[in-house]
């Protein structure tokens, strides 16, 4: 085994700088150098602004000061995602970050809720969720000031300006000794026997050698694909959208930023609205088989929140994943590893978990096949679970108004997803498999939000006497209302806590 003394990161988008900032911590106490190569001329993908709660922890582990990061990235807080027009046109629901109530007697809250409905309690399940109610009222507070013992703290994430975030992390990584090299990588040299990447050569002739390479070069997958020919698994038969057009807009009307992302379905895809402190990130994800670029831009322009600040940025992608995320001495992160559309803001999360796994599996004594196998197995599972969850959004619909919706509503879906839906229909049971990212509440929110109804509930739910169940429900609803009433408006909280720098 060849010891690892030098790590080379190719690419300086969100993935490259997240990897650099996290790996830089390994320099303390170890003989390790880290170089990051990026090309301003090529630039970054320029989108990717909505995150999910584990990202908060990722930043804490990096030692990032939340206020400082949020102020410099024009960040806002995010409590979930509002889905509009998905199950039917005119429908709307929130997929919240926190849980609906809590399990009672080991039985999922949604099952007790189903029983309570059968007993005549007409309250919607949303009133038992803090994040949904705070989002509806435009409220937010991250501290425990208004905390009730029977409610967990607010679960939140951020909306961030992605290029500012990469710059912020660059500052952090460079302070911790990461060396940045500007310029294009023009060539890659492989070692004959092992097939490992030995070095990359930049356009100006500089040769950068490394023991471990982290490919963060974006969709092109410079090392993982172009140099190593790893192969790509195409998932467009399940998730057929393959284009996006992005358009950042200034919020001129002084309206406050909502503490949630909005995903509005259109006739062949959907539109995102990601509120930052001063502007909204807007974009339209669509399927080129059913919609032309100019039509997609027209729909986006017709539904913009704010005044465009830039020219439209058209992007093409193929949903899927690399056949191996770790191949030899190359680990791919971010868009170089694979891509699933940003419907549930999972891409930055997959960078986060990729970096975590890489650090956990790393030995500076060298690289062995067992690390590669573990990394690939764990990452594949993560991708598959997220993929099923995204497919659910398209497949669980009653929309018949376009060829696109007729296709996704009737397409074959993975057996794993079919099983999840059937079990939920039967008695409201949702199995969260092996560290799966999405919780019971996540699955329940999307299934119920898009018209999949529970037909029964687990018989264990009947063990709670009806009066006791009603009392518990009353308590949870009262606690949610108590906290939400006392929370400040989201924009007031931002103005006090982290006004944009
Ligand atoms: P890039 O940003 O493309 O960076 C690639 C880097 O490699 C750049 O620095 C580039 O200069 C460098 N590079 C490439 N080739 C060379 C070369 N030859 N020599 C030197 N340097 C090179 N994710 C979320 O979590 N939430 C979202 O809301 C979200 N929205 C999205 C919307 C769309 C339409 C798309 C397409 C993606 C979205 N994503 C989202 C995904 C998110 O944008 C990416 O996961 C994230 O930006 C990471 O990108 P990256 O760093 O892998 O690639």
UniProtKB/TrEMBL annotation:
Coiled coil: none
Binding site for FAD: 12-15, 185, 335, 348
A Pfam family: Trp_halogenase
Molecular functions per Gene Ontology: monooxygenase activity; nucleotide binding
Catalytic residues in the record: 78
Keywords carried by this UniProt record: FAD, Flavoprotein, Nucleotide-binding, Oxidoreductase
Binding of L-tryptophan, residues: 344
Regions crossing the membrane: none
Name of the protein described by the UniProt record: Tryptophan halogenase
């Amino acid at each position: 085994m060849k010891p690892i003394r030098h790590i080379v990161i190719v690419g300086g988008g969100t993935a490259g700088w997240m990897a650099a900032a996290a790996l830089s911590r390994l320099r303390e106490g170890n003989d390790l150098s880290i170089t990051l190569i990026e090309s301003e001329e090529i630039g970054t993908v320029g989108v990717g602004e909505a995150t999910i709660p584990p990202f908060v922890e990722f930043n804490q582990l990096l030692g990032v000061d939340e206020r400082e990061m949020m102020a410099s990235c024009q960040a806002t807080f995010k409590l979930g995602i509002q889905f509009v027009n998905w199950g039917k046109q005119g429908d709307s629901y929130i997929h919240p970050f926190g849980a609906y109530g809590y399990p009672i007697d080991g039985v999922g809250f949604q099952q007790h809720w189903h029983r309570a409905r059968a007993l005549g309690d007409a309250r919607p399940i949303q009133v038992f969720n803090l994040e949904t109610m705070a989002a509806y009222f435009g409220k937010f507070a991250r501290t425990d000031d208004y905390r009730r013992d029977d409610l967990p703290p607010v679960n939140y994430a951020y909306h961030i300006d992605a290029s500012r975030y990469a710059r912020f992390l660059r500052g952090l990584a460079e302070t911790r000794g990461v060396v940045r090299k500007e310029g294009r990588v023009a060539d890659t040299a492989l070692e004959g026997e092992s097939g490992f990447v030995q070095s990359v050569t930049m356009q100006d002739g500089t040769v950068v050698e490394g023991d471990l390479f982290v490919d963060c070069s974006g969709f092109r997958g410079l090392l993982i694909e172009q140099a190593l020919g790893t192969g790509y698994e195409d998932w467009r038969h399940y998730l057929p959208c393959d284009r996006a057009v992005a358009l950042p807009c200034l919020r001129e009307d002084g309206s406050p930023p909502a503490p949630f992302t909005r995903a509005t379905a259109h006739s062949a895809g959907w539109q995102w609205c990601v509120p930052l402190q001063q502007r909204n990130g807007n974009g339209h994800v669509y399927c080129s088989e059913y919609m032309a670029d100019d039509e997609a831009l027209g729909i986006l322009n017709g539904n913009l929140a704010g005044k465009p600040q830039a020219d439209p940025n058209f992007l093409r992608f193929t949903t899927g994943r690399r056949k191996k995320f770790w191949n030899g001495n190359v680990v791919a992160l971010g868009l170089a590893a694979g891509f699933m559309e940003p419907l549930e803001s999972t891409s930055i999360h997959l960078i986060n978990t990729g970096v975590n796994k890489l650090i956990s599996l790393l030995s500076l004594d060298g690289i062995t096949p067992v690390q590669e196998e573990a990394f690939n197995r764990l990452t594949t599972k993560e991708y598959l679970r997220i993929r099923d969850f995204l497919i659910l959004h398209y497949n669980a619909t009653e929309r018949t108004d376009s060829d696109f919706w007729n296709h996704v509503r009737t397409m074959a879906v993975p057996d794993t997803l079919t099983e999840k839906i059937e079990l939920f229909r039967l008695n409201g049971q949702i199995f969260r498999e092996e560290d799966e990212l999405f919780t019971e509440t996540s699955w329940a929110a999307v299934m119920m939000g898009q018209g999949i109804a529970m037909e029964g509930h687990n018989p264990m739910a009947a063990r709670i006497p009806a009066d006791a169940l009603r009392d518990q429900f009353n308590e949870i609803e009262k606690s949610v209302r108590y906290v939400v009433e006392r929370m400040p408006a989201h924009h007031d909280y931002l103005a006090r806590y982290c006004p944009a720098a």
